[in-house]
Amino acid sequence: MVIRNSEGAVLASLSQQIPLPNTVAQVEALAARRAAEFALEIGINQVIIEGHSEVIYKDLVNPGPSLALHGHLIFDVLQLANVFSHVSFSHICRTGNNVAHGLDRRAISTPDINIWMEEVPPDILQFVQADLTALI
Fold first, then answer.
1. With the C-alpha atoms ordered 30, 65, 41, 55, is the resulting torsion angle positive or negative?
2. Which DSSP string corresponds to 96-136?
3. Comparing C-alpha atoms, which of 93, 96, 129, 114 is closest to residue 10?
4. How far, CA to CA in Å, does 84 sit from each of 43, 44, 54, 107, 132?
5. pTM of the predicted model over 0.85
6. What is the gyration radius of the CA atoms in the chain, in angstroms?
7. How crowded is residue 55: how many other Cβ atoms within 10 Å of its Cβ?
């Protein structure tokens, strides 16, 4: 996951394996929950939580409860969202968020949690540059 400022600059990133999820939607819901937790842990109070799953995005912006298998995770994300002064959810295709995709690939091969603050890991720098180029 990546936390950016309003100009798109990376403030922090986290890469972590998620053990034994049942579905892809659950992985995305768990990632959204972890993104909210991470932002709170580092003291960010205005966030945009971006995800690759349109299903999860729709559940997060739907005013009613989710009855899906991952509904309890959506509930958790929304409870955490109440703590922020501003929160929004965004669906971004993988091709539109190269940094997150690079971190996803890194998490698959690295069992440890990896956190970076105000710097970009060398193997992810190419993805940051690609995302910034796309913004111009």
1. positive
2. G-HHHHHHHHHHHH--S-EEEESS--TTTHHHHHHHHHHH-
3. 129
4. 10, 8, 23, 27, 26
5. no
6. 14
7. 17
